Amino acid sequence: MFGQATKYAESVDSVMLLIVGISVFFLLGVTAAMIYFVIRYNKKRNPKASQIEGNTKLEIAWIVIPTALVLVMFYYGYAVFHESRVVPKGAMTVKVIARMWAWEFDYNNGKKSGELYIPVNRAIKLELNSMDVNHSLYIPAFRIKEDVIYGRENYMVIQPDKIGTYVIACAEYCGLNHSHMYSKLHVLSKKDFEKWISDN
Ligand SMILES: [Cu+2]
Prior knowledge:
By secondary structure, this protein is of the alpha+beta class. The protein folds into 2 domains: about 5-85, Helix Hairpins, CATH 1.10.287; about 90-200, Immunoglobulin-like, CATH 2.60.40.420. About 35% of the residues lie in helices and about 30% in strands. The protein has helices at about 5-40, 55-85, 190-200; strands at about 90-100, 100-105, 110-115, 115-120, 125-130, 135-140, 145-150, 155-160, 165-170, 180-190. The strands form 2 sheets. It has a 5-stranded mixed beta sheet with strand order 3-2-1-5-8, with no helix packed on it. A 5-stranded mixed beta sheet has the order 4-10-9-6-7. α1 (about 5-40) packs antiparallel against α2. About 20% of the residues are buried. The site of copper (II) ion has 8 residues, from loops. Copper (II) ion binds near residues 101, 170, 178 and 181.
């Protein structure tokens, strides 16, 4: 239920892997260098410390390499984030109403539902509204989460490319029954969705 359900989820996981990969590489490198220095330059092996002068090449390297790595991580992170903030033309709009402690989905045709039904392969814009406190709409399998703020309309774009049922959770502590504030996302075929939406 939390597997990668969309191409977007795959991109998010790739960015995560890239950042974790770079971090692990440096964690291991720094730890190994530290252990080596502790052994190689302990008092027994190196009784008299010597003065080390500056090394311009080394200093340039430890400024340029980390800066480049941080920029690479920022670039991929931002590129994927940006994708989730652009509403594609022809996106279907569903109004989301959050309240303590349930979700409601309003389809602009009089139809309302406690669970979210959407057609596959179509961009969906979710307009996020809160009736009371701050909530957060979280769809783990889509790797997407957005705050639902009282008094302000926020939005979220989802692009389902696999039929299935996924978990929706509230990811912002919103009171006593916050931990029960779950719902479901049903991604249906175009035909099944049309049947569902016209069925009142
Ligand atoms: Cu909530």
